[in-house]
Amino acid sequence: MMSIDHDDAWQWATDPRTPTFCITFTRGATPQDVIAAYGADPTQATVLTPAQAIEAFPAGTAGTVLRVGALGRWSFCYENREPEGFKPAVLHRLSHATETIQVFKGGDGMNGIERLQAGHTTERFEPGMATAHGDGPHLLFDQAQRLTAAQPPHTPALHTALRAVGQYIGADLHTATLNGPLLTAFVADGHRSPRTPVSAPGQRPARSLGRNLGPVELPPRESPAPS
Asked: CA angle at residue 121 from 77 to 93, to 5 degrees?
């Protein structure tokens, strides 16, 4: 039986001090590409630590803070305020001609993972649930199910799903990376994307399938950066 090591790379994600967050991972994109897809100006981004980001953009500032970095061939964007990364328009731009994984942790316990290719959802699921939606293949979901079968029964489902994400992208997002200096940008409220779905030409709007996931329906709450 496998167990969670206290030094595990994804341990921060289930820490009570990290009640909510949104992360996207995009294959083959640069951090500057990611910032532009979120609607911010990459030329205005600066490298900041979490403390410096809070000083530059204090809590209550009208907008969202993007902290962006690279993990091998993938770039990630971490948000723990009012996020943009779960919005259909942002995901459509991020995954255009490539692949994007979005992970959302809700403060009320509702979590969701979505993988998109070329703007289309291949899989969408809530960690710990028995089904996944999307066009397939459900690669992350299937791997999370395999890992779950090998874990102690009380292992957090989100932790296991993030391990599956790390194995898929070939890299882990460590606490030290999140707490270190990252390229940081800001999206003011006036430049934020709508929450409405994006449909390709000739494509019908996506229907809601099964249980609603946090990234789709629930308004996230503001929280401090992981420590």
From this structure: 45
Query: Could you tell me the CA-to-CA distances from 148 to 9, 28, 52, 164, 215 in Å, in that order?
Result: 17, 29, 38, 10, 23
| pTM of the shown model | 0.83
Q: Assign 67 to helix, strand or coil.
A: strand
Q: Which residue spans within the chain are E strands per DSSP?
A: 21-27, 46-48, 63-71, 74-79, 99-105, 111-117, 120-125, 182-188
Contact 100, 206 (CB under 8 A): no
pLDDT tens series, the chain, 227 aa: 333 343 488 999 999 888 999 999 999 999 999 999 999 999 999 999 999 999 999 988 888 999 999 999 999 999 998 899 999 999 999 999 999 999 999 988 899 999 999 999 999 999 999 999 999 999 999 999 999 999 888 899 999 999 999 999 999 999 999 999 999 999 987 667 777 654 443 343 333 333 333 333 334 444 444 54
137: cis peptide before it, omega within 30°? yes
Cα–Cα nearest to 188, from 39, 77, 24: 39
